Write a sequence for this structure.
């Protein structure tokens, strides 16, 4: 961490196992404990990664957000510490990016306005899903033959972003509805 203007990367173990540690990297002791094989240990040492513990108050902040997003059940203790380290560094004025392929870490980080870079996979905003589309009329259909025009149905890759957004919105509405019912009853 030479200059406050440079990007500091906070690592989870995937960057280490995949041999993709960038310069100016930091991680937490919990991640180091996950490195067991000798080659990864050697690589980790050579790359001069700074290992720092993280303040309890930052862990609490991450837990609070992860509870709100529902990611708390998918995050390991190590994942939470990695997120907390990034929040702490950001709080101290560093330009921090988390390097991870874990979707729950990515999601919580985004909610805490922390930039995430994928190690191998693409980022969460570039997630694709497959839908069945009619070759003839282009409608999204079920089954193997279009019920409208009778043409062949093919699989097509579409961006998942909109689906995700509408999904979380409807969940929020559902929660509100349940709360309203609880309060009125
Ligand atoms: Zn059709």
């Amino acid at each position: 961490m030479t200059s406050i203007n440079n990007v500091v990367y906070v690592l989870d173990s995937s960057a280490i196992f995949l041999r993709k540690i960038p310069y100016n990297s930091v991680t937490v002791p919990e991640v180091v404990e996950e490195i067991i094989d000798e080659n990864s240990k050697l690589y980790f040492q050579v790359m001069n990664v700074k290992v720092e513990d993280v303040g309890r108050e930052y862990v609490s902040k991450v837990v609070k957000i992860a509870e709100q997003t529902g990611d708390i059940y998918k995050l390991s203790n190590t994942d939470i510490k990695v997120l907390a380290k990034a929040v702490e560094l950001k709080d101290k004025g560093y330009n921090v990016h988390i390097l991870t392929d874990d979707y729950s870490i990515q999601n919580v980080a985004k909610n805490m306005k922390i930039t995430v870079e994928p190690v191998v996979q693409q980022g969460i905003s570039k997630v694709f899903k497959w839908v069945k589309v009619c070759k003839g009329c282009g409608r999204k259909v079920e089954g193997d033959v279009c019920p409208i025009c009778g043409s062949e149905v093919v699989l097509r890759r579409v961006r998942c972003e909109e689906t995700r957004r509408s999904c979380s919105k409807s969940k929020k509405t559902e929660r509100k509805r349940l709360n309203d019912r609880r309060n009125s009853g």
In short: The two ends are 55 Å apart (CA to CA). Residues 162-174 have pLDDT under 50 and may be disordered.
